[in-house]
Protein 1
Amino acid sequence: MKRFLVEISKGRFKIHGFVQEIGQDILVSIWGGTRPHIGAVGMAIPRPSLKNQKKWSATSSNFTFVGHKEDILVKKFSEKLAARLRRNVVVTAGIHWDEITFNEIRTIQNLAEKLSDRILRKILSSQR
């Protein structure tokens, strides 16, 4: 069972991602901000693409606690990893900064995208 921590930051924003392999499945916890928590959970399973059977995609189910907005993050994150790795993936996320602006939200979205890329590269490199 492999596990590792990845962190990414820009300015005052820092996001953490903890990855644990559980058999062939992958569990990712993402948190950051002044009040880390679990705001949403995304579960994705790989499948052949509906548009091109030679490519892989993923189907996800997502659960979000009332008042939280991490659902888009866990959906994108879990589907990306499941499709690329062809493994079941569960992602939890809870990121919160008080009085954040729209542009700062975009910064965090970009950091989350980069975090998913780093996690994907690390998993793929360990499989070689």
Protein 2
Amino acid sequence: MTNILMICLGNICRSPLAEGLMRSKLNFTKFKVDSAGTSGGHKGQAPDKRSIAIAKKNGLDITNQKSRKLLKEDFQKFDYIYVMDQSNYDDVTSLASTEEEKKKVIKILDEAFPDENLDVPDPYYGGTQGFESVYRMLDRATDVIAKRIDNTRE
């Protein structure tokens, strides 16, 4: 079983979309996908209604997800930890205890746009267009990740 964790700040906008997209592209008997936030401010909450709406518009149901905060133990549980932006990357790698744990942390858009150092913008304070843009970015990135991980899995 390969375990994948998606991370954003609050675990209510970007990472729930990334989790839903990734789950839809991988075989659930071979892969486990989860999401978390670097902040615990929304612990136990469902994803933002705008994330739920854009997911639904694209045939995904993320309504059963609940926000949680990243735990130190997650480094032991997950093989890949994808973060949405540089701030998430800095926060997550600062919790890593070893270089091996740090190597698990990857900015998600680096998979689809290598060497461009792009961030998935936080759409929380914006409108529907921001969520649509984030969805498209994550859809492309998760396509690349799913193909790579599924082909390299032992």
Protein 3
Amino acid sequence: MRFEYRFHLPDGVIKTFEVRLDGETLALQHKPRASYPHWAKLEFGQCPGCPLRPEKHPNCPIAMSLVDVLEFFKDSLSSDELLVEIVTDARTYSKRTSLSNGISGIVGLQMATSGCPLFNKLKPMALTHLPFANLRETMYRYLAMYMLAQHFLAKRKKPTDIGMEKFTEMLEGLRAANRAFVKRLYEVCRKDASLNAIVHLDCFADNTAFSLKTLGLDGVERLFDGYFD
């Protein structure tokens, strides 16, 4: 699978980043650098709950996947308006939006497919990667992914969470990792575009958890009335 993110910068330059995923596993495919900056080291602000060990993984998988994007936009402001195009094998998306909103799409895609054991649970969402998604769309994709995971757990005769009691717990764990990664980015980002891209993703996770706690699934349940007769 191929995703080409094109940022039409205010100075007329078009900056392109290509993301390639394995067609079967959705694992991110990228050429490793000969060396990485110090802020990419695993032990540099390692996320809470990260099970990786530096002797086997000297660098953070997410930092390795994002280093090109983060270093390019390190001096950019999140409020900059520009046209962002995403060309995939199946279709093209385009929108004039803030830089941070544009960056958040490619950042989220690479975080989920980077091999990070914390964000690996979000990897299935890369199959239906939806740039510029709103909260309702993101919430639906979160829920659909989580419930399909329960089906596959049941198939393997493992404990399931059909009642979704642990769903918000999973989101809170991802939010903690998001916050830790933002702290890591303070080392490289002199301006806020990349930082706010992570914050943007964190807000989706936060708002999804909040909506479930306060409103439940009523707003989604009514969409399935065709199954209830």
